[in-house]
Each structure stands twice: as structure tokens, then as C-alpha cells.
Design goal:
The complex is a heterodimer. Chain A is mostly helical. Chain A is about 50% helix and about 10% strand. The chains are: A mainly alpha, B mainly alpha. Strand 3 of chain A pairs parallel with strand 4 of chain B.
């Protein structure tokens, strides 16, 4: 059974693997209905920023400065969304950044719009940034509208992957293994359409 | 590097001056041990940045900045998910043209495929497998 969590964590692990030893940042966030009220756009983007900064040898000057400045206010101030966006622009222009967001459909709709607009600002400023999002198809139009022209859509409905895995296992268990070679197997697997619902 | 992870928990971040790239891991660890003992013997100055014999800079206060950026820590969730994940499930996704194109930034100008949206309704897979 393939859930969006599986997909996201798989993608994140793959990205981290490839990023190891290179000057690349990987940051992830998992949305969750149960934690909606804690997952404001500022704290979500702040959490992504935190991971990007954590991977850096030094905290960028602009961020250390912003931290020092807010300390002057009584009790300190949480960074605002606009501050976070600026700081994300700083880190992502210092190193290519992969941002992974899981289950975006579980974000409060109003917050989702602000989050996407903020991400769009980061993408505009730092074209080396890559964003990976999972969610139900219903939020597709909204993502396309907010991040116009930058989006590729891929269906992760579990069907295709599960069918391929299932067939692979069956082909492996074939009682007449000589009848099957890797080319024929590849040919059969290739015959499975991308959109399995069209079968 | 375990020692590093331990130090990071204490809010201490070692930044080395690239010496360990040319020396062995054992030497590197040894350097770190020395640095750590110097750090603890120098506890009158823990709130500031300490420069230890020009080899390492211990930047303290970093964890305060990180905590200030956001109260959330999604990496905990990631580790939880990863532990539950079935081996190799969904690997096919990493082989798709869409994923590779997004990951490598190929196919047109850099910002053209900056976003990969994976859409899906969880919960249909099991039923389908049973139908086969």
C-alpha cells in the first residue's frame, strides 16, 4: 500500500542520499489534519528554513542579524511570514534547495494559498530551488494557479506501481523461466499504461 | 559522526577548517575530543564564539536561532514515517521521467519544472491488487 507519506519519505531519503557530500539542502514538511492549528504558513516555512540553515556551516549573516534584532523587543518576536520568505531566499540562493511538502491538501485552505504564494516568491528569487508536493488531485488547479508555469504533475495513485511490482513478482515465479528473458519482461511491463484506470 | 551529533545536541557546532579532509578520521575525532575538552574547561565563555587554536570555531547560540525560526520539527515525523515504510515500495516513482526531470533540472529552462506535484488518493491500491 502506497501512501503519500511513503512517497514523500522515499523521495526525501533519495534526495538526502544524493545531497550527501554536496552543497545541496533538503528540507521536508508533513501536513496533518490533526495539527492544523499549529501549521501556520510562517511556522511551516520556518521549519523548512530551519532545516536548510541546520545543514549550513554557518548561520547566514542576514538570519543571525534578524535574530539579534528581534531580541530587542520585549519577550522577543516570532519571525513573520515575510521575514521567513526573505530568509529562505537567502539560504536557497546560497545553495540549491529541495523542499518537500507532504499532504498539502491537509493544510487549511486559507493558509495553503499564503504558503503557495510564499513558495512562489522563493522560486522567483532562487531558480535553483526545487519543490516536491504530494496531495489529493483536487488541489492541483490551485497549485497550478499559484505556481504558474513551473509545475509538472505525476499521478501517484498506487495502482501503477503496485501492478508493476505485482507483475514483477509473478514473472519471477514463472515455472518456465526459459520462456522469459529480460527483454520480453521489459516489453510486458512497458505495456502497462501510465494511467491504469484507462485499462 | 556520532560525536558531532552529540555536540549538536548540546548546541555546539564544530566547523572545521577542512583539515579533516586531508587527515584520517581517527585524527579528526582526536581533534574533536581535544576541542570538546577545551570547550568544557573554558565554560566561562560558553555563550560566545570560541576560536580554538585556529582549528575549529565553536559557534554557540545556533540552536537558539534554529528554535526561533520555527517551533515545529518535521524531521521527527520523517524518521517515524521512514521506519514504517515497506522496503522498495514506490521505487518506480523515482525512475519516472517526471521525477528525474524535476530532480536533475533537465528539460527546458531551470525554473520550468521547479515544482513536482504528485497527486493521489490514498486507499485505492489494495482493492485493485485484490481484483487481479
Amino acid at each position: 500500500m502506497l501512501t503519500s507519506y511513503d512517497v514523500s519519505s522515499l523521495v526525501i531519503d533519495r534526495l538526502c542520499e544524493r545531497a550527501r557530500g554536496r552543497n545541496i539542502a533538503v528540507a521536508c514538511f508533513y501536513f496533518d489534519f490533526a495539527s492544523q492549528k499549529d501549521q501556520s504558513p510562517a511556522s511551516v516555512l520556518g521549519a523548512l528554513l530551519k532545516q536548510a540553515v541546520n545543514g549550513m556551516e554557518r548561520v547566514p549573516e542576514g538570519i543571525a542579524q534578524a535574530y539579534e534584532n528581534q531580541k530587542k523587543a520585549i519577550g522577543g518576536l516570532r519571525p513573520q511570514l515575510t521575514d521567513i520568505v526573505k530568509m529562505l531566499q537567502i539560504t536557497s540562493s546560497e545553495k540549491p534547495t529541495f523542499i518537500c511538502i507532504d499532504a498539502l491538501d491537509e493544510c487549511v485552505p486559507g493558509n495553503r494559498v499564503r504558503l503557495l504564494d510564499s513558495l512562489n516568491q522563493v522560486l522567483r528569487e532562487s531558480p535553483g530551488t526545487r519543490v516536491f508536493v504530494t496531495g489529493r488531485p483536487q488541489i492541483g488547479p490551485e497549485i497550478r494557479r499559484r505556481l504558474a508555469g513551473k509545475i509538472t504533475t505525476l499521478s501517484i495513485s498506487p495502482k501503477r506501481g503496485d501492478i508493476i511490482r505485482f507483475l514483477h513478482t509473478r514473472l519471477d515465479e514463472d515455472t518456465d523461466p526459459d520462456a522469459m528473458d529480460s527483454r520480453l519482461e521489459a516489453y510486458i511491463l512497458k505495456g502497462i499504461p501510465k494511467d491504469v484506470s484507462a485499462m | 559522526m556520532r560525536l558531532n551529533a552529540f555536540l549538536q545536541r548540546l548546541g555546539i557546532f564544530l566547523v572545521d577548517d577542512q583539515t579533516h579532509h586531508s587527515s584520517s578520521t581517527a585524527q579528526y575525532l582526536n581533534h574533536q575530543k581535544q576541542t570538546m575538552s577545551q570547550y568544557f574547561s573554558n565554560n566561562t565563555n560558553t555563550l560566545n564564539t570560541i576560536n580554538v587554536s585556529n582549528k575549529f570555531i565553536i559557534a554557540d547560540g545556533r540552536s537558539d536561532i534554529l528554535a526561533w525560526l520555527s517551533p515545529l520539527d518535521p524531521t521527527l515525523r520523517h524518521h517515524d514515517t521512514r521506519d514504517r515504510r515497506v522496503e522498495n515500495i514506490g521505487e518506480w516513482l523515482l525512475q519516472t521521467e517526471e521525477f528525474i526531470g524535476w530532480h536533475t533540472g533537465s528539460g527546458g529552462s531551470e525554473s520550468d519544472n521547479a515544482v513536482l506535484f504528485c497527486e493521489g488518493n490514498p486507499g485505492v491500491g489494495k482493492t485493485f491488487i485484490r481484483l487481479i
